[in-house]
Protein 1
Amino acid sequence: MSARSGQAPLPRFEATGLWLAGLGGFFGLWTLVALSGAVSAQFLPSPWAVVERFGELARTPFVGHTIQEHLVSSIGRYLAGFGLAAMIGVPLGLMMGWFRGLDDAVTPLFEAIRFVAPIAWVPFAALWFGTGIGGPVLIIFMGAFPPALINAYRGAKFVEPRLIEAGRMLGASDLRMITQVLLPASVPSIVAGLRISAGLGWQSLVGAELIVASSGIGYLMVKGQSAISTATVMCGMIAIGVVGYAIDALLRAVEAHIHRRRGRNAR
């Protein structure tokens, strides 16, 4: 998260200290509640019990796979769904921003679809694909697709008019205008959209695996719940959070790099 408008960012050591304090406060409160006996250890295991369970899941298969193998399965589905959303959403958004007729034709259907929660596609995914990879990929795609398209579209719509005028004066074709004018100018908006898309796609994956998968972190959590193993469920949640944070951090770094390069080129 970034500083609010009008506020300078904190120095790195202060920000790190606050981050550690927040983390320590959370785990301290969790430990106190677990040790107090107010909640059964079966339903609220201590932090060290979860760490111990994580080690067991890493060494011993649970519902057929170790936690690493479940995670690899989840990431594979995620990359397929998110990649498909980016490959379709970004070019389509740019073309909608350039071709008025395509915009008018696609927008009504898109506006109707994008307000349907990704989890609402689960019945179709189960009917069409069963527990194969297609079901989770469909649900991830429906979560990740709208932000990818919308931000590419907005980026194309807000390209500086002088760039478009220059391209037209040079006689650039529609294809060259899209690939050599709209696309480069829209990169910051596209990357910002992909960051949102990546987060929604990862959240959608977990929902999909809770219902239409036979492996993956979501599936591990469902089976942990069936076995009344709260520690197993919490291990799955931790894995989801860590990977999600890593994905967002990677895209934030890409976004920052693009802004730095554009800033240098603008001088």
Protein 2
Amino acid sequence: MYKYPEPLKKLVEQLMKLPGVGRKTADRLAFHIVRLSPPEALRLSQAIQEVTSRLQLCSHCQNLTEIDPCPLCSDPARDKRLLCVVESPADVTAIEKSGAFKGCYFVLHGAVAPLQGVGPEDLRLDRLKNLVIQRSVREVIISTNLTVEGNATAVYIADLLKPLNVQVSRPACGLPVGADIEYMDPVTIEKSISGRCKL
């Protein structure tokens, strides 16, 4: 039976450690990398090295940044008393693309997931609480994913912040723009009906 050469085998093993990458995808990516020209392969390698050596967590919001504090936390035009809590840096990017939010963020880097060994103590929630106190935050929008873990995290954070008398909210959820109701799942329809707004 054919076995991969050792360098290719090591590359496949490392690629399989990436989230959502199984054996077939890792094989496909590895063979693509092997076909890169030496300058292209070097640029890819350098990009991976730079992202691990140059990025750090912002001491305020925990988002990825090259400078501390990050540009969002340093922006005087941002409302420091309005805080949006998200699970990942990718969530910050998605919300920023909408242009709908002008406050600051706090990135959890995960959600409460006991089955995966992630507890509240792993999410830097003490830093979140301190930030809310230091900035006299008036509202915390908990924008965790609409999953079991995301909802459990939202409930935990709401309970944690209750003694601080800060308004805690959750983004509205329901039908996406341009969607056909007939293709929506029952939970989405229920959320959109219960969260309806007046015309």
Protein 3
Amino acid sequence: MDAPSAASARGGVIRVALADDQELVRTGFRLILSAEPDLEVVGEAANGREAVELVRTRRPDVVLMDVRMPVLDGIEATRRVVGQTRVVVLTTFDLDSVVFEAIRAGASGFLLKTAPADELVRAVRVAAAGDSLLSPSITRRLVEEFARRPAATQPQGLDELTPRETEVLRLLARGLSNAEIAAELVVEPSTVKSHVASVLAKLDLRDRVQAVILAYESGLIQPGQS
């Protein structure tokens, strides 16, 4: 089942849950998000188990999930709620050793806890819209991780992509947004959006993050390739 998007948010308001074992962090995020008319904080959790229960009972559109929490860590909590909500993982360091595993668990993106307020708000909106959020530093971390791993066999469905869809996938893997891909290919952003949707459907991928993973794992794009 696909996670809800902003379009399904009640009354156009994006419902957000906060999961972090530090109360001061949650308070800061709550104050920032509550100041936005289209965002509503519907609950808070101090550990991963509480986060899973919060998603079940409050049905948020997006969860801001800390990686390191007691009882149940953010990675396992993410695995358990993916399909019910979108998850943006919170991390203290962009080179955190768990970055790769959290993406594999289904996170829609990452956000540094030190990020400015406008970036936090943007991250929530991007995730709620069904898109992914990967900063350049996080993308580099992923590339470094893939560089240490042997290339996997070609995944099913990759040969079903048209040449243009394959090109779009390569650009996705470089971390380009739809607007940037449109500029690169000299087409309308709506055309790129259609190509991205087709790529995800043909490869049975949940979002752009999974598309990035597949592109590197399959060897379609190599670390350092631009």
Protein 4
Amino acid sequence: MEYEVIVVGALETNCYLVSCSETQECAVVDPAAEADKIFALIAKKELKPVVILNTHGHIDHIGANRDMKEKFGIPLRIHSLDGHMLGNEQQSELSFFLQAKSSPPADSFFKDSEKIRVGNSSLQVLHTPGHSPGSVSFIADTFVLSGDTLFCGGVGRTDLPGGNWKEMENSLKNKILTLPEEMVVLPGHGPSTSVGQEKNTNPFI
């Protein structure tokens, strides 16, 4: 699998286009805002979106869900424990600042360890709660999209509604950090890193 990253919105969220190099089919992961910028990259790379995937339900990761669905007519998926956040009125109060639109409901929910087909490749769902109850990561052969669970030199906040530090610790130590050390980590914000680098240098781990 291949990926492209585009930074969008006031909180500089990383939106990823994860694609099959053979078919050009792609998953749009965390379309957060600025849909036109995402559309332009899709067109430039001649990709064929087949699914929208949210790592979690916070407004700074879902703000262009509606635009993606309306343009491409593709399913939207999230973990069931974060499903209620889509269209949440309290989150909508932040939408203007974050250049976000309210999200339509999910078409279906992830199951832990499920494999999501993207062309001739797949992404495996890894339930990694802590930042939110329904936070997930997506594992490919050489990289993992960690959402707001693991960052370069940091970890996700757990002081927001639904956050839980004990769950975060478990997700980090018993799930993400058990992956191969050479695996690239693609976080929801900021630069990429690797599993090995975070094991050795992350002050929260």
